[in-house]
Amino acid sequence: MPVYDAVVIGAGNGGLTAALTLARSGRKVLLLERHNIPGGCATSFVRGRFEFEVALHQLSGMGSPERPGPLRAVLGELGVMDRLEFVPMENLYRVVFPGTFDVTLPTNKDGIIKELSTMFPGEADAVSRFMDLVYTFSMEMVQGLFFHDPDISKEKYPTYFRYVFRNTQEVLDEFFENPLLKSILSVYWGYVGVPPSRLPFGDLAIMLWAYIEFVPYHLRGGSQAMSNALLDAYLEAGGEVRFNCAARRIVVDGGAVKGVVTEQGDRVEAGFVISNASTIHTYIDLIDRNDVPPSELEALKSHTIGPSAFTLYMGFDCEPAEIGIHETTNFITTTVDSDKAFSLWKTMEQQGWALLTCYDVSDPDFSPPGTCQAALVSLLYGDPWFAVPSHEYAEAKYRYAEGMLQLAERVFPKIRGHIEEVEAATPLTHLRYLGHPGGAIYGFDQYAKDSAYFLTNRSAIRGLYFAGSWVGGGGFQPTLTSGRSTARSVLKALKNK
Fold first, then answer.
1. Where does 3-56+222-303+446-496 sit in CATH, by number?
2. DSSP string, 246-289
3. 291-333: per-residue pLDDT in tens?
4. Which pLDDT score is estimated for 329?
5. Are 207 and 138 in contact (CB under 8 A)?
6. Please, which of 117, 143, 377, 385 could form a disulfide with 311 given CB 3.0 to 4.6 Å?
7. What CA–CA distance (Å, rounded) separates 117 from 239?
8. How far is CA 353 from the centre of its chain?
9. Consecutive H or E run containing 204
10. Which residues contact 433 (CB under 8 A, 6 or more apart)?
11. Residues 11, 244: contact at Cβ < 8 Å?
12. Is pLDDT at 450 greater than 70 in this prediction?
């Protein structure tokens, strides 16, 4: 009967970095993945002559070799930096209100101030003061929380304490009058899935600061290249992996983990299990109800499942410029009322909000010569889609895709005529592939109470830990760093065992 130091369930971002961290520390590790490739959301698929990137839009936290960001440091520590090639994006993002407004922000603070001050001369001073606030708040947050300053006080970190408990909308209203300007500066709320009226200002500030300071990147070869690199490094470190092998049950005895039973019926003995699956699936489906502490089940009731997404993956028979695509990251919206836009996420109505990402703008070799590809995505909750009768699903999928394409045509009128390949993913697609409740792509709703600051990677069941979006926050950088953090906790526990 095999005995391992740890079994890791799921080869998504968190699972891969957790398994690799443990293996590089000399521990005997088994990684279980129910699909035939690693990555989870960090993967790709092929249609015709295109290999479509599934989920990555802008990789944050990289920085440069001279000024590395936190993610570059993590990937360097894991020994995969020399296996990957990162391509910086020239600009931060483009925001388009069709027929009304169109602005592109550069990847530097002074450039953003200049651009927005020119567009909104009456609020130029406010723009400068707001960007100063973003930087001051973020630096205080990094120094105080990320570097674990033992002396966190209002006197030492006055800006942090003044704004940390305020939502984004309140702070925007304090500085600005023009709703367009507020919408432009808060457009990243779509990356989090929480409208500005409920988004902690600190979340927006740290996101803006990090993307500006460390520049957004994408990966040559897409996120699948990173997943493959992490897996290769893991195998080279002596780790074992079983693909097409899901976990059926986590064995618990006396309040402690004893191992895992695979879907093939094999029992694997281990004193520690790291689940990269959702905490919901782990507690409800993988562990006998009698072995789950009531406190853990009660805690689950306080969270709400976050949004899923509808994505159109489009391969074009021409280069981006021919369609009118000149920026990698393009936010398209028909409203400045973010609460209204958010309310439509819980329906099957067209939102008038979408993000179009085209990597070929910054990397001409991303697609075959003379072609390009783009992902057009809208966030939405899964429940309305799960209620669609099976015989009506195809029509509902087509209808929603058509509405999104019509929205994109208001900015890129030539887009439809150059589509060579197209594929659509709905919340049901994400549910089937990821196994996440609700098809959620960010884990729980990223409200303050459900954010990574208040979630723990450690279970009340001894030896059970979690990694990934359900405990570390949604997005690539949070899930990648979550795995390392969880593995370090396990290593500490192993040392003290």
1. 3.50.50.60
2. -EEEEEEETTEEEEEEETTS-EEEEEEEEE-S-HHHIIIIIS-G
3. 999 999 999 988 899 999 999 999 999 999 999 999 999 999 9
4. 97
5. no
6. 377
7. 54
8. 18
9. helix 201-214
10. 35
11. no
12. no
- The 10 Å Cβ neighbour count of residue 119 is 17
Q: Kindly report the average pLDDT of the chain as a whole number.
A: 94
Rounded distance between C-alpha atoms, residue 333 and residue 205, angstroms: 21
3-class DSSP string for 108-129: CHHHHHHHHHHHCHHHHHHHHH
Distance (Å, whole) CA 114 – CA 94: 15
By the 8 A CB rule, do 470 and 303 touch? no
By the 10 Å C-beta count (0-12 exposed, 13-18 middle, 19+ buried), 265 is classed as exposed
Backbone angles phi, psi at 381, to 5 degrees: -85, 155
- Report whether 220 contacts 87 (CB < 8 A): yes
- CA torsion sign for 83, 89, 95, 99 is negative
Rounded distance, CA 12 to CA 363, Å? 25
pLDDT in tens, 90-120: 999 999 999 889 999 999 999 999 999 999 9
φ/ψ of residue 400, rounded to 5: -70, -40
pLDDT beyond 60 at 1: no
**Cα 205 versus chain centre, distance:** 17
Tokens representing residue 448 in the block:
């303050």
Tokens standing for residue 185: 């500066």
Question: Could you state, in order of their start, the residue ranges of all structural domains in the chain?
Answer: 3-56+222-303+446-496, 107-216, 307-434
CB-based contact 315:373 (threshold 8 Å): yes
| Number of other residues whose CB lies within 10 A of the CB of residue 453 | 12
pLDDT digits (tens, 9 = 90+) for 257-282: 999 999 999 999 999 999 999 999 99
